[in-house]
Amino acid sequence: MRIFSLIGLLFFISFESFAQVEVSNSSKELLDYGLQERQPPIQFDVPQFGSIDFRTVISGIGMAQTNPTNGDYNSLVDISNAQIILRKDSGFLQFYIQSGYYSTPSLGTSYQRAAIQTKDSFGLIPLASLSIAPSQNWVFTAGKINSFGGYENTFSFQNINIDRGLLWNQTSNVSKGFQVSYKENALSSAITLNDGFYSNQLSWMGASLNYQLDHQNSAGVVWTGAIKSNSTNSFNTPILQNNSQIFNVIYTYTSHNWSLAPYLQYTYIPANPSLGILTSAQTSGAAILTNYRLFKDFAKSITLPTRFEYISSSGKGNLNSPNLLYGPGSAAWSVTVTPTYQYQQFFVRGEFSYVQTINATQGQAFGMSGTAINQARIMFETGFLY
Q1: Is the pLDDT of residue 11 over 90?
Q2: Rounded CA gap, 168 and 160, in Å?
Q3: 157 DSSP assignment
Q4: Residue 7 — very low, low, confident or very high, per pLDDT cuts 50/70/90?
Q5: Do the domain assignments include residue 96?
Q6: At 279, which CATH number?
Q7: Average pLDDT score over residue span 71-88
Q8: Integer Cα distance of 115 and 118 in angstroms
Q9: Would you give the DSSP letter of residue 68?
Q10: Cα radius of gyration rounded to whole Å, the chain
């Protein structure tokens, strides 16, 4: 079985949900209390070019759940990451390339095996871009980049939980496009022009602003959304979400043992009869991610990440309203707990999650008939970060 495919394109400077110039944004700060790159990367020095970092992520996943939907699994074992990362994040010319197989499990949705997920979503090179940094403040980026919107990241090793959450399901993950990032002292900002939900049309824009209030607190706002209608409709590019607007307000707090990230999310889809969207629709959500560090030394750590979410949608009683959750006007809440142990490059973590729907339409929720109103899931992930 092929595990890696690497093509020699040079691309990208890494950024998370806020898409800042450096990787020391709030997403990475929360990650630092979860999985960590404990050893320096393998480095290759190229004359007249600089140092290139090389890393590998290998991990497997196991899952068992109640009330699987039609075509989903009661239980399974799969690859969650088999990826190579090449990065140059200093100097005038910078790049990032990530290649391999991956799965992206998320709450309340059917699981896609890594081979299918990789083939049907972003391919064997999910992230690849080239950046020019004319100064310490400015970075100009083009390629396959992390999308704006939301708080959680695309790949499991980047997150404190194994499953992504309910709010993440409304946001795009990877986009093709351009980004300009600026950082000055405590202020970080970025703007982007991209193809939204991987539509291959430059039909989205976005902007983010983050301010580091002090060494423990930061706050930010993010907007991203369609600037023109787009009729593309596929697994990667759901027509409703690809014509939406996404707004986030995010706050983060970190201390010696705690990290905390509450955030709000609002999405809006305008009516567009030419696309079959007869009435407008919206979702409103709130989430809080926490991580408590039980123990840490140079070699090992034990952490306890949690996530609590609530999301609701409009359209109750309106037969023409788009379905964004579990039927028009439905809502859901979730809780996730992910105890994590890491020893040097090795990590192992378990996870329990529970999703409860509210006002779900018959046939649109869980179970083979879509009539079950909840789903419990147990997951297990283990692997190595080299």
Answers
A1: no
A2: 14
A3: G
A4: very low
A5: yes
A6: 2.40.160.10
A7: 97
A8: 5
A9: P
A10: 20
Contact 370, 363 (CB under 8 A): yes
CA angle 299, 301, 307 (to 5 degrees): 150
Question: What is the SS3 assignment for 367-379?
Answer: CCCCCECEEEEEE
Segment 107-156, tens digit of pLDDT: 999 999 999 999 999 999 999 999 999 999 999 999 999 999 999 999 99
Listed residue (332, 334, 335, 328) closest to 363, CA to CA: 328
| Residue tagged 């996730």 (tokens) | 336
Residue pair 41/57 in contact (Cβ under 8 Å)? The answer is no
In a domain, 57, yes or no: yes
Full residue range of the structural domain in which residue 335 is found:
26-385
Write the CA distances from 26 to 16, 116, 220, integer angstroms: 8, 31, 9
Q: Confirm whether 14 is domain-assigned.
A: no
Average pLDDT estimate for 321-333:
96
Residue percentage of the chain with pLDDT more than 90: 83
Q: Into how many domains does the chain fold?
A: 1
Q: Tell me how far CA of residue 246 lies from CA of 58, 113, 149, in angstroms.
A: 32, 28, 6
> What span, in angstroms and rounded, lies between the C-alpha atoms of 207 and 192?
6
Does 40 reside within a domain?
yes
- Cβ atoms of 151 and 261 within 8 Å: the answer is yes
Question: What local confidence, expressed as pLDDT, does residue 33 receive?
Answer: 53
pTM over 0.85: yes
Q: Is residue 26 packed enough to be buried (19+ CB in 10 Å), middle (13-18) or exposed (0-12)?
A: buried
Run of H or E residues at 311: strand 300-313
